Amino acid sequence: MVGFSGVIRALGLALVGSMHPRMLWLSFRPFLIVAVFWGVLLWLVWSPALDYLRIFLSASIFTSWIEHALAWLGIEGSQTWLAPLFFVILLMPISAISLLLVIAFTTVPAIVNSVAEQATYVKLAVPVNAHLFGSFFGSLAYTLWSSLICLVLVFLTLPIWWIPPLFAILPPLLWGWLTMRLMTYDVLAKHATAAERNALLEKYRWSLLTMGILAGLLGVVPSFFWATSVLALVLFPFVSFVALWVYSIIFVFAALWFTHFLLHALIELRSTSDVEVIDHDPRRG
Length: 285
Prior knowledge:
Blueprint: H1 3-17, H2 21-58, H3 61-72, H4 78-106, H5 108-116, E1 125-127, H6 136-157, H7 170-188, H8 194-228, H9 231-234, H10 236-271, E2 277-279
Antiparallel strand pairs: 1-2
Helix pairs in contact: 1-10, 2-4, 2-10, 4-6, 4-10, 5-10, 6-7, 7-8, 7-10, 8-10
């Protein structure tokens, strides 16, 4: 049985594998792409975006309540730093999801191929005449739809992220759900049929969701520093880039974790199924 022992086994393999130079490069490459994109975009829109946000916040009842509460606590001058803080908080989930999208399309396939080439998985069997469910456009549509749902949920719940202990609960749940959806699609896209993927999701749904939530908890660390530290405002470009790279490392680790778990579970599923199989070399697609 895979179960809990499979989760722990995959966790150990992912921890070791994430330290490999190739995996470190695979974590740096999407970070570099996203950092350049957001760096150029922020350089172009930072000032006008802050001006617009100040106007919006000045007319907001919610912001007025925050300013009065801060003044009651003896904290003056919140108008000068409240807009930048809100802007940083808004950028945090958007940039993190954009990074996850880039990793899903540019990095996860390379990670899956790298893991599938290992001796443990190189003889992964595929049913004869099976139609693998994954495709580029299917992955694109699935990823964009899942990310859109997550982004909507983020903005709907963002006002209550500041309420303890919801800040430590909601982000891991959202990132965990999104990570589980994207990883279970991308890892199995070139290795499993639709029926096999559905069977694995049905059998290991809670194990996979737990893995996603634990990976999401790791992502709370840079999120918490980014959203609450004064340094996040003073050193915003540097802090944001460091946080993005930490996110990237966490996402690559999660991809390794899900890949080891799902490929091992797929082998076990096929070993207990009465189907005719052929050997499949993942390097041939």
